Amino acid sequence: MSGTREPGAVDDAVRNFTEPSHILNNVTWWYMKESQEIDSNILKLYELNRKVDGSAYYCLIIAYSLLIFLGSCGNILVVCVIIRKPAMRTARNMFILNLAISDLLLCLVTMPLTLMEILTRYWPLGHNSFFCKIIGTSQAISIYVSTLSITAIALDRYQVIVYPTRDSLHRFGAIMILGGIWLSSTILASPMYFCRKLEIHYNISLPQIGIDSIAYCLEDWSVKHGRAYYSIFVLVIQYVLPIIIVSVAYTRICKKLQYRYVSTTVVKKDNELSRRKSREDRRRKTNSLLIAIALVYCISWLPLDICNVILDFSNPFGEDYHTTMVVYAVCHMMGMSSACSNPLLYGWLNDNFRKEFKEILALVCPCARSNTVRDRFTSLRSSVSKRKKSKSSGRSFEKIGMKVKSANEPEEKSSFLNESRSKEDVATKERSTNVTEVMNTSIENYYLDEEIDLKIETL
């Protein structure tokens, strides 16, 4: 299958391990059955329970440990920010909280267990088949939840920016959507529960290393090429459809922001040029962020999905299991790196989250407190300045609108008193009416732009 297949299954992708001769390799199994003269290297491999040897073994441990540490720290910060501050518990942030929780599961559950299955030759967690089933299923669920959460965030941002006048999503609606995400993820991952099994081989006498039985957590599909078909299905659901939805949604958002900037008509003032420049810089930053989110998702998950499909159909490395495991591990780490990049893309690059991050870090690290206080003061001063500019611009629009309206009233009265008004007077009134309509449109555009800008700041 695709991005959700964790290698307790990778062994099964390399060789269809359904017979003892496949489990231990033909030669190894024959020696164990027919002879007590077992090669010392083979004994050592099974004594250490290692599938990957040499420097690759330690490099994989270090790389996975680094990903687990960085991803856990980043996602714990996101969770703490949203739980700590009631103002951050908005409907939109519920999606980010859900993404952080699923990524935290990737770091604390999926990555350690995947590393265990990559490095070990046989199942090291005892003879309980439930662990074999539930571990593979939980790994798949966490990946699905992360993917669907990213898709939901993209659709929510699309609705907020492209249709700003519509009612925003409330917290209850967000919770219902999140429940649907977890339920859908569980259903999509359910084949992993039914197809994984623990195969235990007794009557193995290896007194030299104290082993009398060996267990393997395998995938046993009732349909021929069942895993390959499931891999294609998961590739579409977990990669192709989400990347299409995210790309289309963010492309529409970028076009909407560009259209609003180009089409906006405002009254020129001394500070209007700098204000428009600031708005354009903010929207350009937003566009860059949206593009980065789509690209990071695409690049992170593509190698793992392609690797899974290739291994399910035909292993290009043949009997070289060591190379197969290393290649799979590298592809898997690229997919898991999204758990490290998501806190940056959805958290640190958001001004509100970054401010809260700094406050939490200041509590942990006293040396950062002075910088946090200075940043908070700067943020407060900037916020007050924005409010003043907004109010002054709004008042200027209202004053101009009132002037145009008062200029029209005498002409409206004169139209009733003097029916023989000249064509020139009619044209003058029409021009005044057009000016009023333009001003009203400008005022509406202004307030709509302000509303969009406020929503952009929360992305």
UniProtKB/TrEMBL annotation:
GO terms for molecular function: neuropeptide Y receptor activity. Residues 401-432 have a biased composition (Basic and acidic residues). It is found in: Membrane. Residues 401-433 are annotated as: Disordered. InterPro entries: GPCR_Rhodpsn (IPR000276), GPCR_Rhodpsn_7TM (IPR017452), NPY_rcpt (IPR000611). One of its GO terms (cellular component) is membrane. Keywords: G-protein coupled receptor, Membrane, Receptor, Transducer, Transmembrane, Transmembrane helix. The chain crosses the membrane at residues 55-83, 95-114, 134-155, 175-194, 228-250, 286-304, 324-349. Residues 74-346 form the G-protein coupled receptors family 1 profile domain. It is a multi-pass membrane protein. Coiled coil: none annotated. CDD domains: 7tmA_NPYR-like. PANTHER family: NEUROPEPTIDE F RECEPTOR, NEUROPEPTIDE Y RECEPTOR. Belongs to the G-protein coupled receptor 1 family. This is G-protein coupled receptors family 1 profile domain-containing protein. It comes from Menopon gallinae.
